[in-house]
Amino acid sequence: MTPSRFFLSAAIVLSSFAAAVPAMAAACASGGSLTITASADSLSLSPVAATKFNFGEHVILTAAASGFSIASFSWTIDAPNIKDYNEDLGTEVSPSPAAAKPWTTTPLAASDLTAASVGFYWAPTAAQFEPNNGPFSRNVSLTVAKNGGGNCTVTATYTVERNETDITRQAEDFYTSNHRSAATTNPGFGHVVDEHIFWHANIDGDLSFPQWMHFLAWHGEFVRRFDLWRTEFGYNKVAPWYPGRPLPSGPQFDADAGLRLSPYVPDNNRVPTYYTLTGGTANDPGLAGTHKKLADYASLDDFTNSFEGSYHGQVHCNIGTHGGSFFETSGPNFGSMCLASSPKDTMFWRWHGFIDLMYRNYCALHAAACASPSPADPSADPWMADNPTDVADNGTVPSPGTHWISPDVWNRRSPVSTDPCVGPVDSYGDHVTSGGVVRNCGTSADHENPVTGVTNYLYGTLRNTRPEAPRVVYAEVGVYYALASSGLHYPSDFTMIPETRQFLAVFLEPTTTTSIGPIPWTPPALPPANDHYCLYLRVLSVQATPPVEGMGIDTDVAKNNNLAWRNIKVVAPGDTSPPSFFIVRNIGKEAEPLGLHFEVPEQLMNPAGTIRIKLDAALSRALEAGKGTMTGLKSDGKGNLVLTSPKGEITGLQLAPRAEGHVAVQLGPIKTATAGDITITQTSRAGVDGGVTIRLAKKR
Ligand SMILES: [Cu+2]
Question: I need a surface site. Which of 300, 431, 433, 653 has the fewest CB within 10 A?
C-alpha cells in the first residue's frame, strides 16, 4: 500500500466510524438519559471513538448522563478481559535486574468497575484463538445510581476481532504502540519500541550488563515476550522466517511501502555457512582464526561479535529503508527495519525468531559457553528415507533393503515449473520450506541424470513423521556428491554441494512430510571411466541425535535415518550407449577379497548377452590375486563378461585398503518396454559395502 492510498483509506474509515455512532444512549425511566462512549487509544494520542476493537487494543468506556448527575457507577463487561499487562523486561531499570521482569496481567478490580471511565483489553475465549479471528460480540452494561434517588441502566454491544485485512491494525501495531510514556507525541512510539531503542543506545556491546541483557539473550527474551502477549490475545506465536526465502506478503506481514526497500532478493540473504550446523568451506572473514561452522565459535561473544554487525544488520537493512537517525523516535523513517524502531515492522519479530533458532543451535552445541540460553526445544526426529520399504517402516533403523536408492533427493536440469505438491503449507501459508524458493517439487520419479558443467537443481523431501515427533523448529540437510562408487566413506570420498547454501527447514510440523529446494549446483566434469555422481544427504538438527558415521556409507545410512544416499543412473530402455561406470573400492582397513553381485530383471535375460560387464585392469588383477570365481557370468572372449543369469556374482576381488578399480556395464539392445532396476552390490567380510542402481526408465 502506498502512503497516499493509506492516508486516503484511513480517512474513509474514520468518516465511516463517525457515522456509526459509537455512543450508546438510553433514556432513563425516571428522566434524563445515560450514555456509554467507547473509544480506543492504542494507535492514537487521544482516544478515538470506536465500536469495533482489536484483541490487544486498549478499550476505554466512559459514562455520561444528561438530565441528572450520577452518584455511583456499576459496570458489567463481558469476559474474558484484563485491565492491563506488563511487557516490560526491565531493560531501562537501574540497577539492572538479574533477570528479565516477568510477564504479568492485571484483572479489572471491583473499584475499576465503579468509576466513571474504565480502561481494559478484551481477551479471547478458548474458542476465539487463531484461526478463529472474529469479529465476536461483547456486551457491556452500565447501571448508575442517580443523585437524588433512582437508577438508570444502559447496555451496549461491541465487536472484537483480530484484524486480518488492514496493515495499520496488525498485532505488531498494537503491541508496539501501547503503553506510551505521557510525554510522547508519536502515537506509534509505545513502550516496546522505547525499550528496544534504549537497549541499542545504552546496552548493546557493553558486556558489564547481566548476561540476559546481551544481544542474543535479550532479543530472545524480547521475542518471547511478544509471544506471551500474542498468546494472551489469541494470536499464534511468531513463526521464524529464514531470510533466504522470499519476504512473505499479505496483511499480516506487509509494512507501509514507504518503509520497505524493493525488491527483496532472498539469494542475497542466505545464512552464511559458517553460522550453520553443517558448515561449509568458507571461513568467517569477520574474525581471526578458523570458523567454518557454528560449533567453531568458542564463545557466545565470538559468535555475537561476528553475527550482529554482519548478517543480522544486513538482513535488517535489506528490508527497511535507509535514512534518518538510527535512534529516532518519530519522522518518516520511524519503523524502518534498518533503524532501532524496527520492532514496528512485522518482519522484525520473524527475523529475530530465526536468530533465536541460531542462538538455540549455538547453545545446544556449547552449553557451557551459553550462560543465559533460550529454552531448548524437545528432542525430535527429522529423517530422510533410504528406499520404499523405509518409507513404509517410517524410518525405523536399521533400514532393510537397498540403501542407495533414496527417493528423498532428486536432480532436475531446470527448476520444476508446476507445483504438484500436496500437503501442508508452512506457517506463512506458502508451499515454501527452504532454500529461498517456493516449494515446487515434483517427485523422485522426475529425477534427471545431472549434466556436468551447467546448473542443475536438487530437490528433496524431509520427513517429520516419526512417533517422537514434536515440531522440528530448525533442520538442515547438507548435500554431498561423490563419483559413483559401490564403496564410499564420508567425508573423505565426498564434496559438499553447494558451498554457500543448504537445504534448510524451519517449523516442520508433526506428522508432515515436506519438500525442500531447489539447490542450484553445477556438477564438475567427470574424469574418464566415470559417468555419474552419487548424492549423500545429512540431516542435522540440535533436536536430534547427530548421525554416527565412518563405517562405510551403506552401514551408516542403514543405521541412521538422518542419512540418505542416492546412487542411481537412469537409462532409457533400448538405449545401448554409452556404458555405465562405477568405482569398486575397498573401504575396509585391511586388504580383503570383495564381491560384486548383479541382480537384473528377468526380462533382461532375453535375448542372452544383453548385459556385458567389463572390469578394468586393476580389477582384473584383483580377480587374479584373489583367485576369484564367477557365477552366472561368462567370458565373451572379447574381454567382457556376459551375464547369463538374473543373478550373477563375482567374488575374490582382492584389493588393498582404499584401492579401487572401475566397472563398466554395457547394455545391449533391450526391448523399449522393459523397465526395472539393475542392482549391483559390493560386499566385503563386513557385509554389504554399498552399490549402484542402473534404473531402466523413461529417460529424462
Ligand atoms: Cu535485530
Answer: 431
